[in-house]
């Protein structure tokens, strides 16, 4: 289950959102969900209620004992690697080894501007941050000489609970090259079908699996998280009406957040210059037909999940958002129950 707070303070206060989120996490554990995760964003209704995923995940860890705790994702460019590695190592202990760490590159101009970081450094800072965190977790007396950070010799405390370090996931939106690099390095993968075509995503996953196998990593150890928003209800029409309303809200919030990037035509972020046009022409029915969002009753969502398996493979963990925007707690909880009881058993036995 994933939590991406696309919500304005006028709709729901931060306190109310966090309280409801933690209740849903407790329910997710009781229902047998595999993991919970959250994002890192700032300033706007597009994710801005989660500026520090480690803080929210720590609260989740304190209320659970089995479910895995996942960053989906932290942005290394915005935090010194010594600080980031230390925070995550602490969370690994507080969760007793239930932490999975997803790293993301970041893509919102206002966030980079606030941190005083040029966007054209985003990939280099991402690569360097991931490398530094992994070394700090797995080595002692680390001497690091990077383009942006130099330190050492230092030995991080605490050492991670999981040896040699928590599982590392790479979040990739559209880049097959990033997926292949993750596979070669033996890192796991996080992808979002809503921002790419099925054909492009299939190619990304193909390159990732091939690179993983070519590097000699154990195929059974490979983990891929694929993220959807899921509008599930006893009544299919209600689910679709809810989906259309909140997906439109999501698109509007995201369009406002990426507008400076979309207008900038930055070569390092290809395709974003077309995003505003896509947002203006957004069609929920077309998105649903393309299987970019789940919506309906249990039979319909089960069929969508089967299509996901056919298109992208059976070696996937589906990460679902049930509480987008200002959706009431009770409706999100009911969707989680329906999925756990009537959809998931068709795939998990």
Q: What is the radius of gyration?
A: 19 Å
Classified in CATH, the superfamily is: Luciferase-like domain
* Reported CATH architecture: Alpha-Beta Barrel
Beta-strand content bin: 15-25%
Mean pLDDT: 94
Give the topology string: H per helix, E per strand: EHEHEHEHHEEEHEHEHHHEHEHH
Biggest sheet record? 9 strands, parallel
Give the CATH topology: TIM Barrel
Helix content percent band: 40-55%
EC number: 1.-.-.-
Organism: Streptomyces edwardsiae
Keywords: Monooxygenase, Oxidoreductase
InterPro entries: Bact_Lucif_Oxidored, Luciferase-like_dom, Luciferase-like_sf
Q: Secondary-structure map with pairings?
A:
Elements (H helix, E strand, L loop, with lengths): L1 E2 L10 H18 L3 E4 L14 H10 L5 E7 L6 H14 L4 E5 L5 H7 L6 H17 L3 E4 L4 E5 L13 E5 L3 H10 L2 E4 L6 H17 L9 E9 L3 H29 L10 H6 L3 H6 L4 E3 L1 H15 L4 E5 L7 H15 L1 H4 L1
Parallel strand pairs: 1-2, 2-3, 3-4, 4-7, 7-8, 8-9, 9-10, 9-11
Antiparallel strand pairs: 5-6
